[in-house]
Design brief:
Layout (H helix, E strand, L loop, with lengths): L3 E3 L4 H12 L9 E3 L12 H10 L7 E4 L2 H9 L3 E4 L15 E3 L11 E3 L12 H11 L3
Parallel strand pairs: 1-2, 3-4, 4-5
Antiparallel strand pairs: 5-6
């Protein structure tokens, strides 16, 4: 499953963050890293997500965005994509009512994902996996 990063941050900052949190080799896991410098309008405009979709060569309805801000959520939904939100310390008070799913985090061995607002047709989970996101796309039915 191709995965990309579409952020308003500068690409060098994104790469530094990936290196610091996950290691240098993890950079190779991404099909692309798009920074805010590649589009004229930043989030909440959907331009960066539309560009990401073009780079992936898929329909918007086959894209799942993981966001942590209301601006990113708005951009994803305007691009016609499914959006999962993981609120951060900085965005916890923002309105995420348009999200298709809200979880505490994506989950790992030390911190399982806790559902905040999820569709009832999803199975129980402690990790947000590609299979879970695929199920979310089917449940949400974005066209």
């Amino acid at each position: 499953i191709p995965v990309g990063i579409a952020s308003t941050a500068h690409p060098d900052s994104i790469k530094d963050l990936v290196r610091y949190t996950m290691g240098e080799d993890f950079l190779d896991c991404f099909a692309f890293i798009l920074g805010g410098d590649v589009v004229k309008q930043k989030k909440p405009d959907p331009a960066i997500y539309n560009l990401a979709r073009e780079k992936l060569g898929v329909k918007a309805s086959h894209c799942v965005v993981i966001e942590d801000s209301s601006n990113g959520l708005t951009a994803a939904k305007q691009a016609g994509m499914v959006c999962t939100v993981t609120p951060s310390f900085y965005s916890s008070g923002e309105d995420f009512s348009a999200a298709d799913m809200i979880v505490s985090c994506l989950g790992d061995a030390g911190e399982p994902a806790k559902p905040i607002c999820v569709p009832g047709d999803l199975p129980e989970f402690s990790l947000v996996t590609p299979d879970l996101l695929d199920h979310l796309v089917q449940v949400v039915g974005v066209v």
